[in-house]
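User: Could you check the structure of this?
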Amino acid sequence: MKSRRPYPGFMVVLSLWLAMVLALGGPGPALAGMEDTAMFYNELSQYGQWVDYEQYGPVWMPSQVEENWRPYTNGRWTPTEQGYVFESQEPWGWATYHYGNWMPTPNYGWVWVPGRTWYPSTVDWRTTPENTPQEAAYVGWAPIPPPDYVPPPSMPAYEPAGGYYPGSPVTDLITAPFYIFAQAASFLLGLGEAFTPSYSYVNVGVLAPPAYVPVFFPQTMLVANYMTPTYYPAVGLIGLGATAAAFTAYNAGPPVTYVSRVTNISQTVINQNITNNTVNITKINNVVAPTNVLNQNTAIKNITPPALAQGKPLPPPTPAKNTQLAAANLGKPNVVKAPKDIPPIKGEIPKAPKVPPGAVKGAVGTGLPAKATQPLTPKMAQQIEKLPPGQKIVPQKPPKPPIPGVKPAVPGVKPVAPGEKPPAPGVKPPTPGVKPAVPGEKPPTPGVKPAVPGLKPAVPGEKPPTVGVKPPAPGVKPAVPGVKPAVPGEKPPTVGVKPPAPGLKPAVPGVKPAVPGVKPAVPGEKPPTPGVKPAVPGVKPAVPGVKPTTPAVKPTTPGVKPAVPGEKPPTVGVKPPAPGVKPAVPGVKPAVPGVKPAVPGVKPAVPGVKPTTPAAKPPTPAAPSQQQQQLQQQKQREQQQQQQKQQQQQQQQLQQQKQREQQQQQQKQQQQQLQQQKQREQQQQQQRQQQLQQQQQQQRQRDQQAAQQKQREQEASQKAERERQQREQQQRQQHQRSR
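Assistant: Sure, the predicted structure tokens are below.
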């Protein structure tokens, strides 16, 4: 590690500054004592592990977190009058995001050093400059390490650019690897809406990749929005009354004007949310300890700001007058006096083992979950490659050396809380939702469902009863699937006999069921033989071996053609007519060959006389044929279809005309909206320019004031040095005179 030797002039100024702080009653060393640990020990042990870590004493680290977890990532920042508070659903966030300090370690990554002073947040802030385009703007925050923090020698990425020296201001030790940067446009996730995991930075992919942070970090500006808390009574602070409050401060975060510009949310909306959140600050997740903790742990209640403990809003903060003094005392962890009723620690805090040499080669604690970061573009990758080796951030997972006497946490298994009895060796912990076995009872057999209260256990080989089905009463046989249970007073169905179909009467004993289409046998008659058709009425039954005759049909005479149904049978003894010769009509002489038969109503022709032609009757108009009717119907159908097509075309044209008119109307509205949007943007641009000018002017004034203050301090230090030299000279002169 680099080491910088302080020059004599700086040591003089530093000595004078320390003398001023100590003379006014400033707090002493901030080493986490056992009293700070004891207040939080029982509350946090169920969520993580305590270890005794080097010169820092007891520290705590969460165990049930995802890989590459970092503090202040699984949640969102919510604006209030006191500044930004971190809203999260992590069950221990009420303690670790408002008390104490976080710091990176090469052993375990981020660990929490306990403290007893509440702050809205324990982070420092940076932003990109005002003139940065919105798509390239970032808002960043970094956990404030404890006052006695020393950068680990095995992780040079955390070392300040000018080197580390004892007594370095804490703000100088917050280097680039500490910071988490979010896209400025997404800084206020779900503003004004209830918090859900979808509004957590770790779930929306808006955080800058850790390797990309050194690319733009040199251009970022420190937000010096330091506030002095006013929510603690002066009598409860360490020091000389109310003057002790001047030596603790916190950073309230970026101003509303900057956030409004980079998020494109109006200042009115942000200020309305600030007012609402300030009034309801105790309803924000993890701002104050849970009610059961405050009721059971009086030490936690005594270090909680009185207003928060009573569910009331906090008093307005006071801006720090001396920014340099506020930065030097940023996030002091134990300004509040230790309460008297601190519970004792149950258990022993193990010593943290050292990391083997060579185990750490990167920057432990700089990684982020993959779903939390922006995609690394080719342009970003090129910019990262151009970085000098000493500025690159190479994330590394913590080696996590095993703690003596502490078993590593099993994923999905809750660690044993202090005061709880661990499970005996070889005894499995109870399964969630399964009732533990009562002493004296037989444990359930694996794979066998436990008995349902009120149900008889199944006998081996029998089918168990169905859940939700009432078991049969004693002495009553269970219902057979598909068989309707017998009605009281009715005879139950016989086993092996199918029940009658719905709408059919049940079978009478000794009587066969009726066959569809067959008349049932009358009592006293012989039933039909199977395979033999029943006798037709009026027809004698067939004699076995004899072909039955057709009713009313006589047997055919050899050589005589059988009569066709509907024709008169031939007379016996009369010869049938020859083929092609019509039979003789009774009373009509047979036709003579070669002579035409007489036409009815026409006299027969006399030989030698020309017959007369009968008068011709007018022809009867022929009826339209079936084919013509079909053609007419087809024409009518075609005409109807043509008319329907024309109507449909007209309707389509009307609809298209309406759509065109609607589109034209929408285009006009869009053009009007675009014009209004341009006007609003122009107005916003003008407002931003005015605000920028005002901020620049204010910054110049602050710089001038700071320069004047620095000059006054230098003059004071020079005057003190001259006075000291004069006193020494006077002492030497007196000493010489005395000789």
